[in-house]
Design a protein that fits this description.
The radius of gyration is 15 Å and the shape is globular. With 151 residues, the protein is of the alpha+beta class. Strands 3-4-5-6-2-8-10-9 form an eight-stranded antiparallel β-sheet, with helices on one face. A two-stranded antiparallel ribbon has the order 1-7. The chain has three helices and ten strands. It has a single domain, classed as S-adenosylmethionine decarboxylase (4-Layer Sandwich), CATH 3.60.90.
């Protein structure tokens, strides 16, 4: 399961503890130090004015990361742009969350797939992540999203 069309969202446990704009200097510091291994960090964009939007976006060659507030739930979103195995994508998202230093829900996260033709089964995602997987019920026009519960 190597693709670049996966995204991972790790949820904050205390989402309102820090204003969105406070993440801008954090991401700029990451760029200055090239803090995320195996990623070329390039730029930061402020979308905090968008209600339930992407928040603060960090652009890298390999992926886009954002402090996302979609569906009213703040979390770190990692969207892969270059091919990689799903296990590596999840691990990169976890590394970024650790670097961020904010408390995250370690037991539950979401994986979404931006390609319906290449969507793996829940079983394949479970095998790659080591967790229990259920498809999230969403509008059929939305991208497919799976909730992963860690064992």
């Amino acid at each position: 399961m190597t693709t670049h069309k996966y995204g991972v969202k790790l949820f904050f446990t205390n989402p309102s503890a820090k204003p969105l704009k406070d993440f801008i200097p954090v991401f700029h510091g990451w760029i200055q130090r090239q803090a995320l291994p195996r990623h070329l960090l390039i730029d930061v964009h402020d979308y905090s004015h968008v209600h339930h939007g992407p928040g603060i976006l960090l652009v890298a060659h390999e992926a886009n990361l954002s402090i996302d507030e979609a569906e009213g739930r703040r979390g770190l979103v990692y969207i892969r742009k270059q091919p990689a195995p799903l296990r590596e994508i999840v691990e990169a998202a976890r590394q970024a969350a650790k670097l961020l230093g904010e408390p995250f829900d370690a037991g539950t996260f979401e994986i979404f797939v931006n390609d319906r033709l290449a969507t793996p089964s829940a079983g394949q995602i479970a095998e790659a992540t080591g967790g229990r997987v259920a498809q999230k019920k969403t509008d059929p026009r939305e991208r497919l999203t799976f909730t992963v519960q860690a064992h």
